[in-house]
Every structure is written in structure tokens, then in C-alpha cells.
Design goal:
5-stranded parallel sheet; alpha/beta; 7-stranded parallel sheet; single chain
Length: 316
């Protein structure tokens, strides 16, 4: 039987038992990700890896393991894996698309509501004993009805966000490399989107082109009360530029499910701002979604082990 290393504990033991029918299975049971040293040692001699986005599978690990045939990443993104190195050593890389689309889209909409209705600021006012008598001009937020949502990255998650936003009577515009058929919104150029959107939601994949894609040049184009939402990858935003834009009130606020780094250090300026909401990378954090992600990663391993093409290869 081929050996595989699972870099984190899976959502339930039944998934591990399923793997054990086909493989010799080694599972890292620590709460934190394995260190580079441990990852390299435990991967040695493995036919396959079942990895999370927290594990960096680089040339060093790949080149040191001639028996490795597949890396099954339990995530949609695969920026944690050196694809060029995998190609060089003929290693198949798979991901888990589609199964987390709705969960991540729902969180995106939740963050838009959170910021529009100023729920974090209101809750902080209560906790800080600043909740006074009702006043007609206190803690005024935004209506979503007829507001403008700009989506940067019209992929599957962006499409689902747009669909929900349309049902809330939001005006949806989007920007991407090309127009998308049947996308529930209007294609515009990036400058148009930045200048006109009340809410801007990022749904880009992380790669060399998109690293620090949004910076101060973009923030200065935005409305001074616009809100930035990011549920993709933290590195897509130039975070120091975002901090400065928020401090100088160039934009109105930000809701971030992803940051750079993760977790944020306690000294981060973002954590001190009342108009910034941070959630700890919860885009796919539902029981149903995580089970589906793990099951799909397992399926990719089992299919290749049986001599068939894995259903979710990213480096064909």
C-alpha cells in the first residue's frame, strides 16, 4: 500500500478510516501546522500528501521526495504549493473547488451587512458603556437596497456573491480579465468600479500578478465612505497601504476574513480600528463544507491510486 501524510487532523475519524482502506496513513495531530523540518521528515517516502493552505510545499520538499506522486490540497487556492516544482517532478496537484463556494459567498454577504449596519462599532459602544439614549443621528449606517457592489474577480465565488446581492436589490458591477457570460452584474473597467462602488469585494486567486494587487493608488480612487471586503487571500492587498488609507479616512472601512500574515500580530494597527472587522479565515468554516472539502481531497487521492485521473487537477 502507498503511504500518505495528512498534514492536519480531518473533520472526523471516519474520513481517516476511509483513507486507511487504501493507504498507510500518517496524520499530524498537532493544533498548529507542522514545522518545515517536520513536514519534510514526515513527507519522506510518501506517495501522496493531503495538505492544507497553511503548509508550504516548496521545491525543497518536492525534490527531496522522489516517491511523491500527488499533492491533494484541501482548499480551492493552491498558492501554498510550488506548481512549477510539481510540474518539474511530474507530481499531480489537486484542489477542492465548488464545495466552498456558497459558504464563502455567504460570509462575504455577512461581512457586508456587518459593515453597512456598523454592528461591530455598536457592540463596542455597548461594551465600553457608551450606549446612551436613542438619538436620531447616532451610529448611522448604510442601506444595501440600491447600493453599488463592485466585485473584483468574477469567478465562482464572485458569481455567487453577485447573485445574493442582486436578491438584495444591490447594483452589481464587476471587473476581471474578461467578461463573463450570464454574470449577474455589469462589466466595467477597474477605475470605474473603484470610483463608483459603495462596497468592493475581492475574489481573486493569489499569484504573482495579484500579489499586493490593491494598493494606495486604488484606495485613493475609492469613495471616502466605501468599504473593502476581502475573503480571498490577504496578500492580494498591500496591507500597509490599507492601514494608511483607513487612518487617513481615504476609505470608510474594511472587513477582512484574510490577512497578511495569519494570524495578525496583536500589535497590528488594523486591530485597533473600530471601522475594521477581522474574522479568522472563516470562509469555508462550516461542518458541511469542511467535510465536503476533505472528502473531495480524499477522492483525488483514491482516484489516482486506482490509476484514474483525479477529478480536480490544477496542473494538467
Amino acid at each position: 500500500m502507498n503511504k500518505i501524510f495528512v498534514t492536519r487532523q480531518l473533520p472526523n475519524e471516519e474520513l481517516v478510516k476511509k483513507l486507511e482502506k487504501f493507504f498507510i496513513v500518517d496524520v499530524w495531530k498537532g493544533e498548529n501546522p507542522p514545522s518545515k523540518k517536520i513536514l519534510k521528515a514526515r513527507s519522506k517516502g510518501c506517495w501522496g500528501l493531503l495538505t492544507m493552505l497553511t503548509e508550504k510545499i516548496d521545491l525543497d520538499i518536492i525534490s527531496d521526495n522522489p516517491s511523491l506522486k500527488i499533492i491533494a490540497n484541501m482548499a480551492v487556492g493552491y498558492d501554498n504549493i510550488d506548481i512549477q516544482a510539481a510540474n518539474r517532478f511530474s507530481i499531480k496537484v489537486t484542489n477542492t473547488p465548488d464545495v466552498l463556494t456558497k459558504s464563502t459567498a455567504e460570509l462575504t454577504i455577512a461581512l457586508i451587512f456587518m459593515m453597512a449596519k456598523r454592528l461591530q462599532e455598536g457592540n463596542l459602544a455597548i461594551r465600553n458603556n457608551e450606549w446612551g439614549p436613542w438619538h436620531p443621528s447616532w451610529m448611522l449606517g448604510k442601506d444595501l437596497d440600491n447600493s453599488k457592489l463592485g466585485i473584483i474577480g468574477p469567478g465562482k465565488i464572485g458569481h455567487e456573491v453577485a447573485k445574493i446581492a442582486k436578491s438584495l436589490n444591490m447594483q452589481v458591477m464587476y471587473y476581471g480579465k474578461k467578461t463573463k457570460k450570464n454574470f449577474p452584474g455589469n462589466f466595467v473597467n477597474l477605475e470605474n468600479l473603484l470610483k463608483n462602488a459603495d462596497f468592493i469585494s475581492i475574489h481573486l486567486s493569489l499569484n504573482k500578478e495579484t500579489t499586493k494587487f490593491l494598493n494606495m493608488d486604488h484606495f485613493t480612487m475609492m469613495k471616502n465612505d466605501a468599504v473593502l471586503i476581502n475573503t480571498s487571500r490577504g496578500q492580494i492587498i498591500n496591507q500597509s497601504d490599507l492601514e494608511n488609507a483607513l487612518k487617513k479616512k481615504i476609505i470608510g472601512g474594511a472587513a477582512l476574513d484574510v490577512t497578511d500574515p495569519e494570524p495578525l500580530p496583536a500589535t497590528s494597527e488594523l486591530l485597533k480600528m473600530q471601522n475594521v472587522f477581522i474574522s479568522p479565515h472563516l470562509g469555508s468554516a462550516t461542518k458541511k463544507t469542511r467535510l465536503a472539502m476533505a472528502s473531495l481531497a480524499i477522492k483525488n487521492l483514491i482516484e489516482l491510486n486506482a490509476g484514474r485521473k483525479p477529478p480536480n487537477m490544477v496542473n494538467e
